[in-house]
Structure formats: C-alpha cells, structure tokens
Write a structure and sequence with these properties.
Elements lengths: L15 H8 L7 H13 L3 H20 L5 E5 L9 H8 L4 E6 L2 H10 L6 E5 L5 H5 L2 H4 L9 E5 L7 H14 L5 E9 L3 H11 L9 H6 L4 E3 L5 E2 H5 L12 E10 L1
Parallel strand pairs: 1-2, 1-4, 2-3, 4-5
Antiparallel strand pairs: 5-8, 6-8, 7-8
Helix pairs in contact: 1-2, 2-9, 3-4
C-alpha cells in the first residue's frame, strides 16, 4: 500500500479532465463536472463528437507509431485515462511499451495514479507543458523513459489552451529536446471563423482561457518535422475510409497529425 498522502479536492468545483471523461462516457466525474460538460454541449452540440473523434485518432496514431517499433510514450496534458487509453493501445502492439502520463493538475495526477495502481510500465507525474526541458528532466519520467532513444510525445487537445505563438514554441521545445527519429502526435481544436464559440467556451471553463487557432498556425507547429500520411487533417478524416465524404464544414473542429523528427 502506498504511503503517499491523498490529495483532497473540492468536488463542487468542475474539472475539465473529469468533464471530458463524462463527455466520453466515463464514470470518474462528479455533478459539477457533468454541469460543465452540459454547458459545453449546449454551446456546441458537436463537442461530444469531436471528443470521440479525437480519442479514436489518438488510438490510431499510437497504434501507428507502435507498429514502427516504438515503446516509449509521453502523453502531455493527458487528463484522466479514458478508453481507449494510450498505454492499452501501445501495449497491445508491444507488451514492453512504457507510458508516462503528464498533467499540471495534482488532482488529475492523484486520481490517475489510483486508477493505474495495478498497471505496470505506466506512471502519472505532474508536469507543465510550458516547460518541456524541465518536464523531460523529471526523475519520475527518466526512471521510465530513456531519452537517449527515440520517444513519442503526445500533445492531444491541449495546445488550444495557449496562444498560437506560445503553442508553436511549446512544440519547438519538445522537438529540440528529443532525439532524431522521435515522433510527435498533435491534435488541436480550431475555430473555423466562429470566434464567438471560443469566447463562450472560455466563459464556461472559468478556470482558464481557450485561444483561437486556425489552420495556418497549426500547420506551422510541424515546421521541421516530416508529416506522416494522411498529413495534417481533421481527426475524422484520419478515421474515415472515405475522407471526401467526411469533410463537411463545421464551426469548430479538431486538426491532427503525426510528425517525425529527422
């Protein structure tokens, strides 16, 4: 039994990771989280669809990278593990896969650690996406991940919490910090000329602002990386056998891609 102190938290305060868990059909959430999720769905009814498409993209992307022989994954801004989980997908391909989940929220880390108590080769650690070099130097991370070898860094649905210029800098810092041959899996919410959605979501979140991203800055996040097929595209097109049918315009969407450091 662990001797680490449990982190207490106020269940009356909504948490975006738990709201996301609820939207995806999970059970690790409370009434306040469900209320936040309801607000998000009221603002944009396709929120659940986008969340599910993003999780499906992430599973496909992790599977794709795993089949190239990768066994090291760092899932930054992971939130609560929600099926399909990164470690489950990776270990199905390579049983020796190691996954480090990273989140800035200590409540999420405490909860994730409890959920993963029976899992091997998986750990949840606190870390700030804004400080990649500090995060990658963490003893908890380096005990699990060998950074002298290629790794796969996952930045799924977190970059829209930063201004585009800051998001680009965050990606660049991770690219500089990992060795050649490493992969970055990126997905980011984009606002297709409906900026009022961003403002309304920011009001609903209360805990922090969302920022408007469009296709041009998102494409720049992959500067210097080799983008794997099918390139930078909507997450649903990563999943669709018939992309031309699945490209109807939406006020907001999620763009995604996998980049490889040469």
């Amino acid at each position: 039994m662990s001797n680490e102190p449990l982190i207490s938290f106020d269940t009356s305060r909504p948490n975006i990771a738990r709201a996301y868990d609820f939207i995806l059909g999970g059970k690790d959430n409370f009434a306040a989280d469900r209320e936040l999720a309801a607000k998000m769905l009221e603002i944009y009814p396709l929120t659940r669809t986008l969340a599910r498409e993003n999780r499906a993209f992430l599973a496909r992307a992790v599977d794709r990278v795993s089949r190239d022989g990768f066994t090291q994954f760092i899932d930054v801004g992971s939130g609560l593990p929600t099926r399909p989980n990164t470690h489950e997908v990776a270990s199905r391909v390579n049983p020796d896969a190691r996954v480090v989940y990273v989140d800035i929220d200590p409540v999420v880390i405490s909860h994730t650690t409890a959920l993963l108590a029976a899992q091997g080769k998986v750990v949840a650690i606190p870390g700030d996406a804004c400080r990649p070099e500090e995060l990658l130097a963490s003893p908890e991370l380096t005990a699990m991940i060998d950074l002298t070898r290629p790794v796969c860094v996952i930045l799924a649905m977190i970059l829209h919490f930063f201004e585009p210029s800051q998001a680009r800098d965050i990606v660049s810092m991770f690219v500089r910090a990992v060795v050649p041959g490493s992969f970055l899996i990126i997905s980011v919410g984009v606002d297709n000329d409906a900026h009022d959605l961003t403002d309304r979501f920011t009001t609903a979140y209360a805990a922090g602002a969302l920022h408007t991203h469009d296709r041009r800055p998102v494409a720049s996040y992959f500067t210097g990386l080799e983008i794997l097929e099918p390139g930078l595209t909507e997450v649903r097109n990563w999943l669709s056998a018939h992309p031309a049918i699945a490209t109807s315009a939406r006020p907001a969407d999620v763009l995604a891609g996998i980049g490889r450091k040469a």
